[in-house]
């Protein structure tokens, strides 16, 4: 998946990938209940009464089951705050659309969601930023001519437009930046190898693609 945006009668979006390690070593975690931070928006993380779902969470649950892991989910306000919590040792793992790399944008007035990689991309290019709390608010900023485009995850934009087909916006037929996303954990964590193996198994079996298609198509 890609990094792009949506604009009024034009657009652009973002991508999904897999693992990020941070520079700290930690004790073995396999035998205890993991504190799993969760951050992100639909379709990666979908919060509903009675529980959570979404691409990232569905994949994580399959991986946890494959490795017999015990865990509890801890909501994080933004991916950036989740990374900070991870660095401080407040959580053991961060699940959601966690940006790993980013390329530069030209691109103009950009509506972005605060604390996301889209905001970082816009800042790198000294774009005029219109901060928003939700994707719906960001799109409204474009519709009212207060921004030229929304910079956000392509799957999230696809999901939003699928559920709001009346909006006079469209997804760009190109991508602004390639990004990979995934679960973040500290370097040296004993979970890294078994989780990577589980992810490869899900990729090779087509299960990961099935999870995405079920929510996006």
Structural features, described:
The chain has helices at residues 55-66, 79-87, 117-124, 135-143, 154-163, 192-205, 207-216; strands spanning 3-7, 10-11, 19-22, 34-38, 46-48, 51-53, 71-75, 93-95, 109-113, 128-132, 149-153, 170-171, 183-186. Helix 1 (55-66) crosses helix 6 (192-205). Strands 10-9-11-1-12 form a five-stranded mixed sheet, sandwiched between helices. A three-stranded parallel sheet has the order 7-4-8, with helices on both faces. Strands 3-13 form a two-stranded parallel sheet. The radius of gyration is 17 Å and the shape is globular. With 217 residues, the protein is an alpha/beta fold. Helix 3 (117-124) links the parallel strand 9 (109-113) and strand 10 (128-132). The protein has seven helices and 13 strands.
């Amino acid at each position: 998946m890609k990094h792009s945006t949506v604009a009024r009668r034009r657009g652009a979006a973002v991508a999904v990938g897999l693992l990020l390690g941070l520079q700290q070593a930690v004790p073995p975690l396999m035998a205890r209940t993991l504190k799993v931070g969760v951050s992100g928006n639909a379709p990666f993380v979908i919060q509903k009464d009675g529980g959570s779902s979404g691409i990232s969470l569905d994949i994580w649950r399959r991986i946890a089951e494959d490795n017999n892991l015990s865990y509890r989910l801890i909501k994080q306000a933004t991916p950036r705050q989740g990374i900070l919590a991870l660095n401080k040792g407040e959580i053991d793992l961060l699940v959601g659309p966690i940006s790993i790399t980013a390329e530069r944008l030209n691109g103009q007035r950009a509506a972005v969601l605060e604390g996301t990689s889209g905001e970082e991309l816009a800042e790198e290019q000294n774009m005029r930023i219109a901060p928003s709390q939700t994707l719906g608010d960001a799109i409204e900023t474009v519709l009212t001519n207060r921004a030229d485009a929304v910079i956000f995850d392509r799957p999230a934009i696809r999901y939003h437009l699928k559920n709001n087909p009346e909006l006079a916006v469209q997804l760009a037929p190109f991508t602004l930046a390639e990004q990979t996303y995934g679960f973040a954990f500290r370097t040296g964590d004993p979970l890294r190898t078994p989780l990577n193996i589980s992810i490869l198994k899900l990729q090779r079996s087509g299960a990961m693609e099935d999870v995405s298609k079920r929510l996006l198509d």
